[in-house]
Amino acid sequence: AQSVSQHNHHVILSEAASLELGCNYSYGGTVNLFWYVQYPGQHLQLLLKYFSGDPLVKGIKGFEAEFIKSKFSFNLRKPSVQWSDTAEYFCAVTVDTGRRALTFGSGTRLQVQP
Amino acid sequence: DGGITQSPKYLFRKEGQNVTLSCEQNLNHDAMYWYRQDPGQGLRLIYYSQIVNDFQKGDIAEGYSVSREKKESFPLTVTSAQKNPTAFYLCASRDGTLKSNEQFFGPGTRLTVL
Is residue A60 helix, strand or coil? Predict the structure, then answer.
């Protein structure tokens, strides 16, 4: 079974600071990788995804992530955060067989101070 | 508008009572999922259904039951056997036409046991 680790549980940044959230997964085969975001009081929504092709993927609101297969990592980045990026961020993985359910990391709470 | 609806948004239950959480989708997706979200633990899979009239246990199915009589609907019953039911419950569906196995989430139901 696959698993996902998010090492940063709570991150506090000032506006305009750069962001990098770590995500590592364990699974030996082909994976699909996701970052979901949960803004306060809102749906869980997809930020970006990787399933094939260019390992550097761009998502909404200026976020990007890089899949490094050799490191089993899929870190999320943003060059300059805004107060509106305050939210909880979840890394998730699924495989292309069986139940195709998402396995989530424990989440990172990002707090951006104005 | 296509999407996933969950009701109610908030639910209070007395110990020893069964409650049923509703999940409806009009996205024409075959696969549907129930996750439970607890602080600091990310989301964990309760049950899933890949097709009508079929469903399977996820990682934390004890104390829960589901049905899938219609493609659009996947209700979750939290029974009195669930030892710690207070949590945020999220329903999702998966677009089987997408290679990424992306899932779409409803707004969630927050269940509190009094």
Answer: helix
Residue B18, pLDDT above cutoff 70: yes
Q: Which two tokens stand for residue B106?
A: 């409803």
Contact A99 B103 (CB under 8 A): no
In terms of pLDDT, which residue wins out, A41 or A77? Answer: A77
Top pLDDT among B102 and B57 is at B57
pLDDT in tens, A4-51: 999 889 999 999 999 999 999 998 788 999 999 999 888 899 999 998
Interfacial A residues in 23-52 facing B (CB < 8 Å): 32, 34, 36, 42-46, 49, 51-52
By C-alpha distance, which of B21, B4, B2 is closest to B107? B4
Contact criterion met (CB < 8 Å) for B43 and A102: yes
Q: How far is B33 from chain A (nearest CA, A)?
A: 7
CA distance A11 to B72: 39
For position A95, what pLDDT does the model report? 84
**A/B interface, count of CB pairs below 8 Å:** 63
Q: Average model confidence (pLDDT) for chain A?
A: 93
**CB under 8 Å to B96, separation ≥6 — which residues?**
B29, B30, B31
Bridge-based pairing state of the strands B109-113 and B10-13: parallel
Chain A contacts in chain B segment 40-99 (CB below 8 A): 40-45, 48, 50, 56, 58, 90, 92, 94, 99
